[in-house]
Request: fold
Amino acid sequence: MADWPAQIDGGRYETIGENLGPEGVGPTQGKGVTAGTANNEGNWVELEASTAFDGEMLFVTAHSNQANTVSDYHLSIGIGASGAEKKIIDSIQMSRSGDTDGGFNNLFAWFPIAIPAGTRISARVRCSTASAILNVQCFVFAQGFMGPPVTGRFISYGPVGDGSDTGSVGINPGTTANTLSGWVEVAASTTAPARYLYLAIGAQQNGTRTAGTWLISIALGASGAEPNNIIIGPLLAGLRAGNDLICPSFFGPFTVDIPAGSRIAVAAQTTITDDTDNNIDVAVYLGG
Amino acid sequence: MADFPNNRGGGLWATIGAVISGNSRGTLITAGSADTDDGSWSEIEDSTPFDADGFYLNCDVGGGTLATGFLFSLAIGASGAEKRIIDRLLLSRATDTDGPGQNCNVWFPIPIPAGTRISGRCQSGTASATMNVVLHLRMVSHFQTSAPLGILKTYGVVDSGATGGTACNASAIHTRAWTEIVASATYRSKLLYLAIGNRNNTARPYNNWSVSVARGASGAENNNIVFEHLIMLSSTGDDLIHASVLGPFPCDINAGDRVAVGNRSQTNDGTDRQFDAAIYLLS
Reply:
């Protein structure tokens, strides 16, 4: 097919959730979304009352406010009227270190998700620290023809729900450096077919880590058959003691073809031999 | 058209460059002399396993005790005949304790044929600084793939006497100012990447920025926004701007367009509100 100008994706965009005061006055930040009690979601916070056009891509950014508490976060994005919000992105795992003012890997992530014109978009946050604040801001993009197929929602596998923790599934690579861990099941049976996959890494509220790097792989298949069914990886992440942040901590989207009912497992190896500092949390997000 | 499984955009990925035996990192890339020379090309893969329609570039630039910048290039071709497909991608490392870095995992829809040799090299503000790199290649899908893009054009980097990008400043607190990155783009482009450099600032405050990109003549940027108010921040603890290479952003930038970056900052300190920017346009 010819490359018509209309195919040059990106005729329209909209910024939502920005919190910008008048020039010279401020503030200059994203919309503050406050968590509930420790390890429980807070209220939905509206980012946009009504989107301006049909969008096919959502670019999500999130930033920690200034505070020095070592914390884990889960960020969800929802659509729908106040009181009737439905999650379209569920519990993105993020972490903040304790370094002076809370080093934080800012989230900048694309989600190929359909957002009809007139949609109300909101966000909510769970955090291991009560009433912690994430600043959230998004772009909605509309594309021409030939954009990627879009999906309706992203389902999370691994994040722990309200109550006891704001982490995900833990992986311990063991104290022998550079040796692949056992495969850790993240999803026993996925609930819907998926064509997009993301991986998030959580820091388990460890704010005094040893420097090192990780290689992380994702596989399908029954227990014991993972080495023959690796679909992504190894992904590279590094950490330096200066800020105790695992970086990058969010990977994707990877295009995949995962049927409903699939088992997903993750394994990691690292240069770190300390049996606490080598641990990470992982969560997988699938969109169909 | 029905959504055949083949339409699903490529279920097969291959990672190249990972060092899994005796280490857990990517291929080591070593810079040359400070602020002047690329190091030698380091082979990441001698022969790619399949026709790829794009790849994620996955870098770790942390380590060391000096705040510094990197300009990383990726090439295809035989040893001695490398041709750059990514030219001087801007990344930064802070100085705090052991050098936290702007690690990245960024998608580039640039086709690479099966059997291609891939290598990387970098320049740094610190002589012989190292970074490590892996690539995640996606097999060409069948239907509904995007039109192939092949030329990634670099604008705004500084590679002589320094290793960085174009300094972007603001004139007052919470007030946006525009800085030209390119006076006239060479090609019409569909995708845009924005790289943010840390300017070797070793004493950054906690700060928020609103970053924008626009086309158009000087003074007309506000009417020709590509995107605006992308929020990013820096931390005092690690003195690092927590952004790296951002994108790809859909765009429609014509050959001959001027492109500028807008900086609105929460801090009014004339040094700390500055960041470096480089733009990469994919055609």
